[in-house]
């Protein structure tokens, strides 16, 4: 193969290649405005800060929390088994860059 051929990745996926994970849901902040759960996974976010990875919700389902840059600064004291609530407030325009970003309220009850 030539160098140009190796850099091209062909999308040859079919429906039968789709992977389903019925135990892990993704939080859609615009559909479900709030989520409450127990922290099960904490990951390293951008610039070395913490970010929530996975929560267990009231139905005991695992819920993946997408990268929420607006929350990362509030997570410095977060540990596994903390109870949290995140409420999506909407979008705001940044005063410095003029770009739109998502805003949230964050509530925390420390694990005992």
Overall description:
This protein has 112 residues and is mainly beta. It has one domain. It is 7% helix and 40% strand. It has two helices and six strands. It has helices spanning 3-6, 69-72, and strands spanning 24-26, 34-44, 50-56, 62-64, 83-93, 100-109. The termini are far apart. 10% of the residues are buried.
Instruction: Output the structural class.
Output: mainly beta
Q: Please give the largest β-sheet.
A: 6 strands, mixed
Number of helices: 2
Distance between the termini: 59 Å
Contiguous low-pLDDT stretches (5 residues minimum) are none
Q: What is the ordering of alpha helices and beta strands?
A: HEEEEHEE
- The level of helicity is under 10%
Question: Judging from the principal axes of the Cα atoms, what is the shape?
Answer: globular
Number of strands: 6
Over the alpha carbons, how many angstroms does the gyration radius reach?
Answer: 18 Å
Features:
112 residues, mainly beta, six-stranded mixed β-sheet
Short description:
This protein is mainly beta and 112 residues long.
List the helices and strands and how they pair.
Layout (H helix, E strand, L loop, with lengths): L2 H4 L17 E3 L7 E11 L5 E7 L5 E3 L4 H4 L10 E11 L6 E10 L3
Parallel strand pairs: 1-4
Antiparallel strand pairs: 2-3, 2-5, 3-4, 5-6
